[in-house]
């Protein structure tokens, strides 16, 4: 009989006993069954003496060996083997929370500030319009603008945040929350309380940094409200760090399990649909700017500021690319957007005044959409239908298999899910996805807008309420149709 792994320390663990029994059963011989076609021999059975039992040398006799039954007493007399177990660090061991939060937050702030200061400083140095101190001051003002903090200028408030910089800021704060979670030893604990504690600590440290930056920037030509800066930095710091802390502690899964299934899948599908619609807007906007490349190049050349100045204008346009993608999304949904007071850019109406001379205006439509352009109206619907398809696929095969294929492997064979998701769950999740997508797109529309002074360009961007309402309706219908069609017409 081959050796097996015995119970550690003589414990009565049933799992250890089961493992040992399986090892014993593997050593037992198979019972010789009657083979088809061989007539049974008509002879009486008799007991075989212990001394006459087969030894295993003869293959024919070895196939007829007796089964040996081993009880718990025999297993208890076997020699035990202690298996080494990897020790885990004691819970709660790690760096102090204030130290970890301060270090990670300062690093996140530097990573997001230095690129802005470098770009502005390079442009100002090559043009001979200022030294390093002036470049650092201008970079700090641009960095504050990326947080949505309005800057008072001689022409009025500058309150149009470059959302590409805002996305970078949120990403670095997300990483800061994740690093602090690991540093204090809260990784994979599933604790919502510790995730909130990390978010508050990072948000508080980030608020102090924002207040200091506002105090340094506030002055003649760049008026900054310290209270406004504190509020914006606190909101972004807590939000970004909370996302990372929830990922680090695994509290996202804990929260998801507490939600009803329809609400959980509805939130996830609504987020997917919202970002798919924004992706469609980004593609259309990029194509429009590319088709108007000659006009964009002419706008850049008209500045006559040299290579550095033209590069600066191009980088500013890139910083507002996310804003433009959201504006095009509102255009595809129907409400459209404004480029100044008394202006409107919609599918059925284009009313423009003198726009700001930036390369992005090369993608503006010249008039209402024609019959050939009505296909653009279908893009948000297609995006919602794709989100509905992923909803049904996720309910069938799980999150990992929703996008890759409709089948999954089981014990080496490709099989199709045996149980279809209930119709009630599919429909309820689809309908809930609409309001979720509407709230997300309304928030993005609000964040993408702003003002460039107090004059004609004091109103730029889409209307958040109209965009959210239309998006909620379109996404709810499209997701329901896509999910129901996938549920009804299943590929075998």
UniProtKB/TrEMBL annotation:
Residues 28-65 are annotated as: Disordered. Signal peptide: none annotated. InterPro entries: DUF6350. The chain crosses the membrane at residues 99-123, 130-149, 155-174, 195-217, 229-249, 270-294, 369-391, 423-447, 467-489. It comes from the Bacteria. The keyword Transmembrane applies. Keywords: Membrane, Transmembrane, Transmembrane helix. Residues 29-45 have a biased composition (Basic and acidic residues). Pfam families: DUF6350. This is DUF6350 family protein. It comes from Actinoplanes sichuanensis. The lineage of its organism: Bacteria, Bacillati, Actinomycetota, Actinomycetes, Micromonosporales.
